[in-house]
Amino acid sequence: MFKHRIHYYWDKFAFSDKRKHGFKSILVSVAAIVASLIAALLLTCAIYKDTSLFGKILNAFFTVPFTKGYYDSTISRIAIFAVAATSFLIASKCGLFNIGISGQMFFGAAVATIVAQHMINVPNGLSQIILLLISVVSAMLISMMIGVLKAYLNVNEVVSSIMFNWIIYFIATFLLAKYCLPNSSGLYTLSLDMLQVGGDPNLVFKMPNMTSWLPLLILMVGVVTFAIVMLGFTTFGKKIINTGMSITAAKYDGYNTKINQINAMLLSGAVAGVLGVMVYLSNSANMPISVAAKTLPQEGYTGISIGLIAMSNPIAVLPVSILFGMIDASKVALIGLNIQPAMTDAIFGIVVYGAAIISLFYFIVPFRWYLRIFKGKAYVEHYDKYVDHVTTEINAAASVIYHLRKLRRSKMTSEEREQSIEMTKDKFDKYKVNVHKDISHETLEEYENKIFGEYLIFKANASKKFIILVAESKVKQLDEKIKKIREGDK
Known about the structure:
- By secondary structure, the protein is mainly alpha-helical.
- The chain has 21 helices and three strands.
């Protein structure tokens, strides 16, 4: 029976619609990142006319970030990028493109900074919580206005976000001017040092007796976990996702789509507020913002790129953020290879842009090319039919097994069990499974094992049929060749 289960779970992973789509998404994302990284490295080698840079840059990307003196910055950047991407994907799940993450995080951090200047002798720990809440509420205020404009006035969220970005920027920098100090270049900046103007070290977002990156990591885990649970396991999250999939269908289902859109933007803004705290109120990030240069923080835009590459999947955000954090942290090491800072930014930009156009890789299927070249067109046609046949069967078997386990493990009343059985009667009848409301757990388990065995028999027969059809196609091709040769001889 264990053998049956192994075959079943492997085929479910390889052939079922849901698993196949997820596996392809992961494969496509990895291929896009690898291809764009190779293109960026080849371009760098061509510009500097040095092929040895290919290996040196790869070494810098994958080893330097976690060496002593670099890992602190690397982990901090990974945490920041993951939170930025989570902010974007929450809005994107509802069909909204929140390009205003940079403005929202900056506004939240700016308001928290101004409040921080008036906080005196606040206990360590409480001060961080207060500043975090202030930043979150301030960012939510901006995102709520964007959501309201979209929901009730149909103002495109991209346009309103861009406008709010610059309105926020100029208002915030005006208010911050009296709290900022000039740096060595004479430009006003907002950074860690500005938080210590009042002389209260408790204002720094650092937990007692912890390394500098650990609070950022804790915030990242909390935010990403919240997104996974909320979107995947709550009714509220399903409403947001369904609204994003089709706002018309959501209306027919009775959803208040306007409220769902506003809620999605509110949550996206709340996460942007957390991001602002991580970037500007942390003693690890210490990211300066130049008031005179008029530039918005780039973390929000990087988060958008990561969210697109991860296909708005909160779990996929983590590995992509790790890669981007490693590349970003290794920029300093590349300068030691006599690579100009502008070129390091270009490499990072090529990777981001190349990875963002992942849709192109959906149409590139090397495995099918291999089959067509080395196996022939007839083989590919039979293989496609075989895959479709197995996919249909594994989806049906998986559905029945799911409902059998639901009946066996869930605590439902007799009426609820009867209703559930009635809804899935057709699926049970296909496998001749006689399920009723008083059926025992042992019988349900026997039926489950029976379906495992029947699926294994089906798979064996389908494989034999595929092999026979391929063999018949080859024989037919050989007959046609022989016929042409004989006609040529005549």
